[in-house]
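Following up on my earlier thread - several people asked me to post the actual chain instead of describing it. Fair enough. Here it is, all 150 residues.
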Amino acid sequence: MEPTPWSAALDTGHPALDEQHRNQFRLHAEALDSARSGDLGAARSALAELLAHTREHFAFEEKLMVESGYAQRELHHKAHLTFMDDLVSLVGEGARDSSSAVLRLWLESRYASWWKWHVRSNDAPLARYLLAQATPPPPEARPAVARSEP
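Reply from S.P.:
Thanks for posting it. Predicted structure:
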């Protein structure tokens, strides 16, 4: 099974989120290739990089949610926590045995399917919210400003 490449169908419309997601999928492919190669050093390195980038990405999203007052923040945060628990466990498995069946199965199936689900159900609504916050309302939707006569 080949790693799932990034697809434009997963774009959220938020440039920073989309760039980070594309990088996440690239790092996933590298980790899977390394695990398949049986090269323990390369697998450990790729998994460590995947873990570090995931932490950075989730921290970035968390910051955006807090700063913008995103109402669905708690639910989104819980999805991050659950995934990180799995990823940390996976990285530990890879440190012990880079050719582990559990490691390969997780990378071949669970990883990409979770990201697709997360982007569509959590990140796309966040991106829409952030983009709406950044876009000023059209003139007709703005309240009229009373002008004082000179």
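The chain has one domain: 14-135. That should answer part of your original question.
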